[in-house]
Amino acid sequence: MLDEEEDQMANGSLKPLLNVLHGNRQDPVPIWMMRQAGRHLPEYMELRGRANGFLDFCYTPSLATEATLQPIERYDMDGAILFADILLVLDALGQCVRFEKGVGPIVEKVEKGGRLNKVPVQQAVERLSPVYETVSRVSSRLADNKTLIGFAGAPWTVALYAIEGRGGTDKSQARIWAHQHPAELALLLDDLVEVTAHYMAAQAEAGVNALMMFDSWAEGLPNDIFEQIIIEPNKKLVKRLRELKVTVPVIGFPRGAGVMLPDFADQTGVNAVGLDTAALPSFINRELPVSMPVQGHLDPLLLMAGGDVMERRVIELLDAYRDRPHIFNLGHGVLPTTPIPHVEKVVELVRAWSAD
Ligand code: CP3
Predict the structure, then answer these.
(1) What is the pLDDT of residue 73?
(2) Mean pLDDT over residues 279-301, rounded?
(3) 86, 107, 253, best to mutate for ligand 1 pocket (most atoms within 8 Å of CB)
(4) What is the residue with the minimal CA distance to atom 2 of ligand 1?
(5) Using a 6 Å cutoff on CB, does residue 216 contact ligand 1?
(6) How many CB atoms lie within 10 A of CB 241?
(7) Which of 38, 58, 130, 342 is 20 to 30 A away from residue 202, measured at CA?
(8) For the chain, which domains are there?
(9) Residues 226-256: pLDDT tens digits?
């Protein structure tokens, strides 16, 4: 921990969200939402209209800075997540990435048995320098009590886009590869560990307060494959970050890990874990150390639905995690048609709730 942070912790003024990531219970429970910057905000749509496509948006620090700050300005969230995308790393590695309206991202496929090393690591990391510029601009404009979260995709989730060419597939091509040629796949995942570690280290250097690794496609894997392609690469990534002298807390988010989440939390070296929509509080509280911070869980579709049922659930989740460091969040990202008043209501409820 930095000296400055230690001083702040001593006088209780540390950023609340960051304080939770350091393992301390904080009331009111800090809140942010995955995909809080995005299409549900009219001000985001206005900004996006000014860029030449989504990649250009991510690579333009003036626009990405505004997008990062919008949810803080509108909702007063405790955390800002850097506006970027997990697929920028593939773009920087020379794998063609396109975002198609109504379809989502399309990625140039890597050959079976191939590697993701067309571009040397140092050069790929340099190509991502507009992202570090965004971090430093946001960090200079963010209030002292707000936490800036940087991120990258975890190796398997990013690899999946390069192997299957897109997300949302049944992952069969990549999984067969994992079964038949584990050593080859491990090399490709190692390529991503190395570039991602340097990319995240550069974000930390530029001023993020915490880092999150998104393993969005970790669900439905056999336990041995989960160890091989989820736990092992996340563990290597955390280790590499620490070797690169990154000291900020790291959040792991193996979405859909289910019963494998405790092993993930225990073995990867992460400081905190993200909970998906299907998490079970009794299981989480029994199987994760009581000092391990958790964030997430609220169903994005319930946020879209709103009403009493949403309000009751928010309180239920606050109650469920009252005995551990807790950050309120969703189990996955805010959906584009989510009504703004529903998000406002959740923020209001979380701020008004107290563990006493
Ligand atoms: O508020 C934030 O969360 C900030 C930035 C952010 C984006 N993508 C912006 C974005 C973050 C943290 C991501 C991570 C990301 N990107 C993940 C991991 C989290 C998850 O959702 O599982 C994944 C799998 C991606 C890949 C990706 N990027 C997909 C599948 C899509 C299309 C889906 C969609 O909603 O259209 C994107 C595009 C994308 N990334 C958008 C945003 C705001 C929508 C682009 C637009 O149309 O404006």
Answers:
(1) 98
(2) 98
(3) 86
(4) 35
(5) yes
(6) 23
(7) 38
(8) 2-352 (3.20.20.210)
(9) 999 999 999 999 999 999 999 999 999 999 9
